[in-house]
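In this section we turn from sequence analysis to structure. A common task in structural bioinformatics is to predict how a protein folds when a small molecule is present, because the ligand can shape the pocket around it. The inputs are simple: the amino acid sequence and a SMILES string for the ligand, here magnesium ion. Study the lines below before reading on.
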Amino acid sequence: MNEIIALENVSIAFGPEVIYDRLSFSVVDGEFLCILGPSGCGKSTLLRVVGDLLGVDTGSVMVAGAPAAESWQEIAYVFQSPRLLPWRNAEENVILGQQLRFGSKRSRADMREKAAALLDLVGLGRDTHKSPAMLSGGERQRVSIARALAVDPRIVLMDEPFSALDVHTRRRMRTEIIEIWKKTGKTIVFVTHEIDEALELGDRIVVLSAKPTRMLETVEIKTARPRNPNSAELQAARSRLKHLLGVTDGEAIAS
Ligand SMILES: Nc1ncnc2c1ncn2[C@@H]1O[C@H](COP(=O)(O)OP(=O)(O)OP(=O)(O)O)[C@@H](O)[C@H]1O
Ligand SMILES: [Mg+2]
């Protein structure tokens, strides 16, 4: 197994509050890994540690074979809210991500070409000139996915990227993110509150406990996508995840 992210014995405390006590965790190159866990358990913190936005008190964080501090170029984020600049159109927002990452190392023409190709990939080939105010919530989130991919990361960290969208858009975006993942071969680490979202998307689902956070279990899903939610494997995995998270039928994890 080729690990692209490896945390070993990571401990973090904010003042007296222990978030992780010797947490170990790894992600295989190219996999779609989902992280589930109760609100406040440290899912977003885990992504920040991987992206070197937050240092650890003890333990090691390796990303793409080097300490996280040296590997930030391998990583891009997609957040719950798309965080687009309102005065820049879709294409210019995707270009901005590249300007911040590459400065003058990538030519303006290359940035524009990349932005156009990725907006096309996320289904916005004809909307490149639209400002965020003209785009729907799902379209805005697609722009932020294009912006993340435009810096050629090996790893995309997604923090509840679809949770602000309506249920239909969310369903469509899940299908699309799988297509994008297949086409690009990126490693995706995807934080979600929803068991069914994790079941639909993940090769593996890592379940975290409440604080101090431990890995409760990793559930592997072998069924090919698109997955039938009522298949025996998914039903068994759903029961297991509900049991681990202590939730009743149909409920998302309390937030
Ligand atoms: N900079 C900080 N200073 C103090 N406490 C912090 C800081 N950042 C995070 N925390 C605390 O660490 C814990 C984990 O936060 P985190 O945002 O990672 O949770 P989460 O699992 O993403 O929650 P949610 O599902 O609600 O998004 C929380 O209790 C939070 O209050
Ligand atoms: Mg969070």
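The domain at 3-87+132-245 is CATH 3.40.50.300 (Rossmann fold). As an exercise, try to locate the residues that line the magnesium ion site and compare them with your own expectations.
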